[in-house]
Amino acid sequence: MLDDRPYMRPEEPQFRPPIFQQPWSGWAILLTINLAVFILQLLADSNSLSPSNKFGNSFVANYLAMPTENISWFLPIQLFTYQFLHGSVGHLLLNGIALFFVGRLLEPVIGRRELIALYLVSGLAGGLFQLLFAIVLPAHFAGPPMIGASGAVFGFIGVYSRMFPRQEAYFLLFLIVPVRMKWKWIFWGACVVSILHMLYTIQTFSSDGTAHAAHLGGLLYGAFFVAFLVRRGGFLRLFSIIPKVKITSDSPSGSTEASSRRDWRKPNIVDAAEVSDQDFMSRDVDPILDKISKHGIHSLTENERKILEKARSKM
Known about the structure:
57% of the residues lie in helices and 4% in strands. It is mostly helical. A hairpin with a 3-residue loop joins strand 1 and strand 2.
């Protein structure tokens, strides 16, 4: 019988695995945690939501939010837990929208693990920045405990705007006015707005209740990440004692081991000026971006980092 041969059997339909069996994106994991924590706040500690004059006496404010005065031994934990807490639906919605859009742009570039680490460290940097100003100028910046993911989200904005400064973003200003702007102007504009609000707080002794110093701290860490950590493989590479290196060779199978080692020591560096922009992006940059998406930015070789740096300078 012919039907027992593989090529004569009817093709079976291919179905995608269920969503819970697929690897989650880093931004989806972070967004889900923020949403789940907000639901727990709503059910277990409604005093932690605004408008509420009982926030200062709530469990969230005393043990999970980041204090700017009356610092306790819980501070090392609070520097991370405050990043997943929010005071209202609008607060969560604004941070969630920014996390969704910027996280989706950034994750294919740096990878899932690096994105989650960037969220935590950017929020840590923003919290420490706000705390520093609260210690130096307590009359201006010390106040109610701080909650929110905005410091971490501004870290995302800082990284993407410094990596792709000439790309354009389309968004609704105040959720009404359509605006098209290059990412480098978004970065500098956010810095200026944060600094102006901080100067206004210093001069008038009044605050709008927003941690603008935390926003500025997240932005500055994002710029630091691009300037010093991207070329070194990202933040997680700093904790890798024995980095995972996968060496591939384009030499024929009959080449000797010595010639393979020689090829690895002297990689062929592609000069972006020798090919057109479109060919350079499709032939050399796209595979690198795919590799970052699958294995993270720490998996790149020195040659691949140089190609990515050249591509960034041409954008």
